[in-house]
Specification:
It is built from 29 helices and 9 strands. With about 675 residues, the chain is mainly α.
Length: about 675
């Protein structure tokens, strides 16, 4: 029925053309000098219109054309030569418009189920492809009209452009059709981003259609970039929590490659710049500081050149990325570089080469203004190396200490030297203790062998005490050692530090016997599985007494790391309160003694902040002491002279605002007072 209506309209239009031609010409027109050109009679004109109408209709309905194409072309040329081009163009446009208008119904009436979105896109693409091929064929017939009359009238669009205009106006600009087309394309792209295979040629064709129709930016690109921003914002937040930094960096690199490939495959080239900028902003720019805080030091410590290269390449794409990376790298060199060279496992240098590296380090050290910050972090790292046996060379450690002493004086290294002295004394004490235990038979050598390091509180970094529930055997040995030690050193007080403890556990798996080198917290958790096969997080927390954050990190190291001696249900990288754990008897490893990563002994952001805050607090005390010394000696000073004297005495950089705060603090505590007549002058208060 629809086809009949179209043909009826076409016939009416061509009849209209005939009448128009008649009104502007006599009954019989002839063109002299063209012997083979037919005369423009009523019958000829009518027959010509019918031929052209039938040919266009056949093309639009994909049926065979009854007439020879050359004959049709000649007919158009004849009509144009008889000066009826304006009417011919107008009526051709009307025929095309009627046909395109009829196509919209198949899309408006299409089922709205999400399952039909792909078939909807395929139908739209088929309609577009048919339209293009039909327009090309129609243009080939009406080529003479296109190259003469239309070309000479700059306000008239070509036959091809007319076809685009009509398709845009009646198909793609329809609100419901455009919305469904764009949403379907976005849905396919999201599926591809989620790892599914999609028909890229279909997407390329449809997006090419939107571009050709000049609606790509307004109808698609803005929606696409908004959805991209939403997707990667959520993905960045989630993966920064779930993955470690190396995994995250490789994921970001892969995502950028995928999006660039998407541009090459089916997106318009103009979309590349805003698309890549969106991905970089959400996956890198929004998490730049977190990436560096969470992973840079670890990558540098482990000499992960591949990931460091990738980190540099990715951050170089983000505004301010390289400057932020440079600052973090500068902080690492100030704090943690010496530790990486003096730690066990450093295979980069022989002892002679290491000595040369330390000499170069001292050159850099001379340019550091805040040497107290270096001292604080150096002391903390030295403590870890000594307590967990990670020092590469005692000789190298003492050589570095000697260089620091020569550079900064004995006061700078006195506490560091005290740490070495404690370790040497602890060895002697343990020899004596084992001899006494052996003589008194107070310990069973086949059960637990205890080693204790006695640390002088003033020498070592401060550690937060934590009470945990030790097994009865450990408690008994602690008491035995306490009685032994206090018997030799009356008046002293022992405070146990479980956060620094470690142990070697003999374990039996299906594969055979293994030894696990673990922290004390890991030890307490693993010993529970001698009694039962499965525990909840709450049951483990109650039994061990480990603080919640430490417990979750400990369980994570045992069940989510490389050496998974526990199985976690449900699986995942984060430990939640509802998780349950059971012993992994199927655990296998090529080594007999396996060191399980001690997460609580790793550098953490909190630890860095805590150390920095302690340095800042110490600086305040030093500033106060220097202010009091200067004022006690000078009695009265102007603000500028006092600040100048202060800068000469302090060995670390201080902001003027911080100095002003310390001066106000001393005034409040009655160490000094401001002159009543001149507020910029101070007096010492005896």
């Amino acid at each position: 029925m629809m086809a009949e209506d179209i043909q009826h309209n076409q016939k009416a239009n061509f009849n209209g053309l005939t009448k128009s031609a008649k009104s502007g010409a006599s009954k019989k027109l002839t063109i002299k000098n063209f012997k083979d050109r037919p005369e423009l009679t009523d019958s000829y004109t009518e027959d010509t219109w019918i031929k052209l109408r039938d040919a266009v209709s056949a093309i639009q309905n994909s049926t065979s054309i009854k007439y020879n194409l050359e004959e049709l072309y000649q007919a158009v040329e004849n009509l144009c030569s008889y000066k009826v081009s304006p009417v011919l163009y107008k009526q051709l446009r009307q025929v095309c418009e009627d046909h395109i208008q009829a196509q919209i119904h198949q899309f408006r009436e299409y089922p709205s189920s999400s399952l039909d979105s792909l078939s909807f896109l395929k139908r739209m693409n088929r309609c577009w492809q048919d339209h293009c091929s039909q327009t090309i064929m129609i243009r080939s017939i009406f080529l003479f009209l296109d190259r003469t009359y239309i070309l000479q009238n700059s306000l008239l669009p070509s036959i091809w452009d007319t076809g685009l205009e009509l398709f845009r106006t009646h198909i793609v600009s329809d609100g419901a059709v455009q919305s469904r087309t764009v949403e379907g394309i976005l849905e396919q792209i999201e599926c591809e981003r989620n790892g599914e295979t999609v028909d890229r040629s279909l997407l390329r064709s449809l997006l090419g259609m939107l571009s050709d129709l000049q609606v790509y930016k307004d109808s698609f690109e803005q929606r696409f970039l908004t959805e991209t921003n939403r997707l990667y914002a959520a993905e960045g937040q989630r993966l920064m929590q779930e993955r470690d930094v190396p995994e995250y960096l490789h994921h970001v690199s892969r995502r950028l490659e995928e999006e660039n490939d998407r541009v090459i495959s089916y997106l318009d080239q103009s979309t590349q710049k805003p698309l890549i900028a969106t991905v970089e902003k959400q996956l890198l720019g929004e998490h730049m500081n977190a990436i560096l805080q969470k992973g840079l030091w670890m990558l540098l410590d482990e000499n992960r050149v591949c990931e460091l290269t990738l980190l540099y390449e990715l951050l170089s794409k983000v505004k301010g990325g390289l400057m932020t990376l440079l600052q973090a790298w500068r902080d690492y060199i100030k704090v943690h570089y010496v530790d990486s060279k003096l730690r066990a496992g450093n295979k980069e240098a022989t002892e002679e080469e290491l000595e040369r590296i330390l000499d170069k380090i001292m050159i850099i050290f001379r340019f550091i203004h805040g040497k107290d910050v270096f001292e604080a972090f150096y002391k903390k790292d030295l403590a870890k190396r000594l307590l967990v046996g990670k020092s590469a060379s005692v000789d190298a450690e003492k050589s570095m200490l000697s260089k620091l002493k020569h550079e900064c004086g004995a006061a700078f290294t006195s506490k560091l030297e005290g740490m070495f002295k404690d370790m040497e004394l602890s060895k002697d004490i343990m020899i004596q203790f084992k001899q006494v235990c052996y003589m008194q038979n107070q310990s069973d050598p086949s059960n637990i062998e205890l080693t204790v390091n006695i640390l002088t509180m003033g020498y070592w970094p401060s550690y937060t005490p934590m009470d945990v529930h030790l097994p009865a055997e450990m408690v008994k040995l602690q008491e035995v050692f306490k009685i032994f030690y206090l018997g030799k050193h009356s008046g002293r007080k022992l405070q146990w530090q479980p956060t620094l403890g470690h142990a070697v556990l003999k374990t039996e798996f299906k594969e055979g016997k293994k030894e696990l080198q673990v922290s004390l917290f890991q030890t307490l958790v693993l010993l529970m599985f001698n009694e039962c096969d499965e525990y909840s997080v709450e049951e483990i927390r109650t039994a061990t007494g480990i603080e919640d954050g430490e417990l979750k990190r400990t369980l994570q190291s045992l069940a989510c790391g490389k050496a998974r001696v526990l199985n976690k249900m449900p699986r995942g990288k984060d430990v939640e309160d509802a998780d349950r754990f059971h012993f992994n008897s199927d655990f296998t490893h090529k080594l007999f003694r396996i060191k399980i990563n001690q997460i609580q002994m790793k550098e953490t952001v909190e630890e860095q902040v805590s150390t920095t805050e302690r340095v800042f607090q110490d600086r305040q005390y030093q500033i106060d002491a220097a202010l009091v010394r200067i004022m006690k000696m000078r009695k009265t000073l102007s603000h500028n002279l006092l600040v100048s004297e202060l800068y000469n005495q302090l060995k670390f950089p201080v902001k003027p605002a911080d100095l002003k705060k310390r001066i106000e603090s001393l005034i409040d505590r009655d160490y000094m007072e401001r002159d009543k007549e001149n507020p910029n002058q101070y007096h010492y208060v005896a």
